[in-house]
Amino acid sequence: MTELEQIESALLSYLPSDNCTEKQLIESMKYSLMAGGKRIRPRLILEFCKLCGGDTEAAMPFACAIEMIHTYSLIHDDLPCMDDDDLRRGKPSNHKKFGEDIALLAGDALQSLAFSVMLSPKSVESVGADAAAKSAFVLAECCGANGMVGGQTIDLEYENQKASLKILNEMHQKKTGALINAACQIGCIIAGASKEKIQAAGKYAEKIGLAFQIIDDILDVTSDEETFGKPVGSDLQNNKSTFVTSIGIEKCRELASVLTKEAIDCLKEFQGDTEELINIANSLLIRKN
Asked: What domain range includes position 14?
């Protein structure tokens, strides 16, 4: 079984049974959580854990938890009160399938489930109470008011007005980059890595997170809905400032390439096999969706 298949299997195993009165909620959670995707964040946890000599099987609950947080954020981002997108990964957005009320609750439930999975007795026993607590703290910080949710707030506040490059950097370091940062740090924490290695992983994450967003901005202009898996041109429609509107497509490509190279350079802090983390960084640079 490949690493991606292991992640898919584990995600499915953590979903609550739908043999309950609130069956529609569970179906809504499953619909978005199991809709596919690149699973970048869980892969980063597993790869950094492996690189630092940790047990990837013990890290799997944490890898699944971060994907649950990511999925909840996508469900909420697509809501009419946020980005108002009708398509996600080539399928109707959660609120188009289940209604806004159930979609909102499914996101809430996935967020709770993430911390339940990370802090279950089995997970704590596998990695140790200290590593489990530190990992949960890092994730909570990175997805909260000064992280992912804060970034989404900045995004909403700057609709219909021009955001400076400084604001764009801050917005996306929080909205997109914070969760990627959490994944890289958590992989190291679970493996008991040194402070220096955790910091290097964080710097790698900052670079690929920003490169990821720059490519996303490019694809929103240059791709098509079928390839991208979600509506294109939505940033322009919502009158949002992006890296493309600020510096143009060519300079965006150049900046994304520089950031990717800098990310790969951050891996020199590690002595093990960094090939897969290099591949992840490069794949984000050339992605089509």
From this structure: 3-285
